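Hi Prof. W.,

I finally got the LacI family DNA-binding transcriptional regulator prediction working! I wasn't sure whether to trim anything, so I left the full sequence exactly as given:
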Amino acid sequence: MDHTDGPRPRAVTIYDVAREAGVATSTASRALSNPGRVSERTRAHVVAVAERLGYVPNRIAQALPSGRTGLFALVIPDITNPHHVGLIRGAEAQAAAAGHSLVLADSQEDAAVELAHLRRLASFVDGFLLVSPRAPADELAALLHRHPAAVFNRPLAGLPGVVTDIDAASAQVVRHLAERGHRRIAYLRGPDTSWADGERHRTLAAHAAEHGLEFAATGHHPAVLDSGAPAAEAGLATGATALIAFNDLIAIGVLQHLERLGIDVPGRVAVVGADDVFGASFCHPPLTTVTSPAELAGRALVDLVTGTAPDDPVLPSELVVRGSTGPAR
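And this is what came out:
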């Protein structure tokens, strides 16, 4: 095994830049952090020297006089959920356009972990982007009252936010199943701390009643692939011919379990997911699901924290029909 001998090279400091550029340390610092206070010729010279030496500014140290670090904390409930990839990408792009960077925190679907992240990060971030927060509203309010914050998929009093149009999505799902002759449908619920789960349950039940369908709900189930087997068993026990999962991970797990049991999808039972994650279109059979405007939501959260209101706080969501749904037997 090859080992490198000797000490690691020392990081380049602002003192190194100043010495190499032949200017005072204060001048070098102003040229890099407050260029309006030095001449353009001096600024260009110092910047060129800094780039040649490979100098990287210490964002925390720069923030000490202003109290701002240029960092936003993005707190998500499950970093392994592919739905969040688009959201992270959208938030990162919008933050970069505004001159900010992101700190990513995974709450692991645990309210206590989520609150611990907020406490630790509060001292050095300029704002919080919360995705489907699980903690109680009063505890979130107590921690966030001094920080700009925006929330996706959970309305919280006093905080700006955006949500997906869950009611419209539920209406499309129920209409699609009713038109294919399904008379009994079941909703496989997600985490009990999820606002979106409660809304999905409420709106699916309401639209099922409008169409005269029998409606049942099972769970709560963790929003992961391994929930597919118990969720499928619970759904089948209701006698439903169509199973609507809280998210695509549960739905794909349901498809896998039904295939192991030799139950034909969509011949014997239809399956619907939510989020349209990567993989939903090429599982077996391809999953009928509801799109989630994740990247748009990520961008909207950054806009809200920086003081720009979105055109519409309710983001569109549409049904994508694939092979996992068909006519009822």
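Residues 72 and 102 are 5 Å apart (CA to CA). Does that look reasonable to you?

Thanks,
D.
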